[in-house]
Amino acid sequence: MIVIYGIKENLNPIKSALSDVIHGCMQSVLGLPEDKRAQRFIPLEVDDFYYPSGRSAAYTVIEINMMQGRTVATQKALIKALFQQIELHIGILPIDIEITIKEQPAHCWGFRGMTGDEARDLKYKVNV
């Protein structure tokens, strides 16, 4: 599950393209299949989104929630790919992007009526 926050006037026009870029990075770095896109966009009013000085109104926060198992190298590769591809395809500079990866053990995930540690039919690897 990925949650993306930004000022609505800036985020709404780029949602579709940003979704494609983020999912492309998830596919190329983590090996997620095409049909594993799980994203939520939270467009905010200007007065509801405080961000650090030195950032522009394009400031965007990306929170990536995933099951534990990816190596530090894989997580760093994902973050760097996101910075690079978002700047290249969307035009948001890395100074205006904040990325957080939040990992939880597989037993803390629930989907399709089971917990993540019970799932045996995932179409992707978690330990990469």
Automatic annotation (TrEMBL):
Q: Which residues form the signal peptide?
A: none
Listed InterPro entries: Tauto_MSAD, Tautomerase/MIF_sf
Fetch the PANTHER family from UniProt: TAUTOMERASE YOLI-RELATED (PTHR38460:SF1)
Q: What is this protein called?
A: Tautomerase family protein
- Organism source for this protein? Psychrobacter frigidicola
